[in-house]
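Continuing the batch. This is chain 6 of the set; chains 1 through 5 are on the previous pages. Same settings as before, nothing changed between runs. Recording input and output for traceability.
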Amino acid sequence: MDRAIAATVPILVLVGVGYLSRALGLLRDGDERALNGYVYWLALPALFMLDLAQAPLTVEALRFMAIGVLPVLGAGGVILALRPIPRDLRYLLAVTTVFGSLAFFGIPFAEFALGPGEPVRLASLAVAGIAPFTVAMALVLLEIHGTTGLRPSRAARRTAGRLARNPLILSILVGVALSLARVGVPAFLATPLALLGRTTAPVALVTLGVFLYGRDYRSLLPALGLSLPRLILLPGLTLVVVRLSGVSLLEGAVLVIMNGTPIAVNTIVLSDRYHFHQDKIAPLILVSSLGAMVTLNLWLFVIQQFFGG
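Output for chain 6:
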């Protein structure tokens, strides 16, 4: 119970600060785009680049990253294979299941629930392994959904071009390259990168609160059902995989947290760009964000039982 409170209260407070800042007029409509841009283009890339550059990418680290990816691929594949479900709904469930708020929500939750230091390093490592696949999967599914009749080769080129400009993927690649080359980050760069990276958690959560203010949430009940694959199916599969793989309690807890995070806030941007279920995405983000604060703490309890304490 103490761990659940320690993990949930700071998140609720920071999200509430963002929400109240809009309600009181301290921030205006559209300011969430500037905050999101700061986290997306500056804070998160700095965090990823520095953490990965300083982390030795051993065989164990690569195995840890692969274990986090397997449940995502499995869950996405299972949903897409459910032919009795209409194609449009399958694509909605697949995108919102694989595309989670790994960095915006997962890293802060891991830090609050498990502590700073090693849990945050493992969370960043998990994001480095999982995020490229989830971003690529979401974009590919959206391209296929939105470009019916377009040749696969053209859709693949368009998707590859967008991935090549993604700041999160680029920063992950740079950090991995520096780690593999065993090139240290100079102090005059490491210090500002560390300062930027430490702002990721609070700014991301405040941004979520700003984003949630004033949205149309008339479809909350259906959204609850649509969010269950992300909150229940994926972390459940992850729990099975980490139990079978023999990772440590801390590693398993971090992977379950990362794959049990709510639907990514950036899904709203993609839904607008691709005209993809725009009426359903905002309620899904709200319900999954609130629901994750409950389900993630339940998963932490479950994984402790699976690992024997």
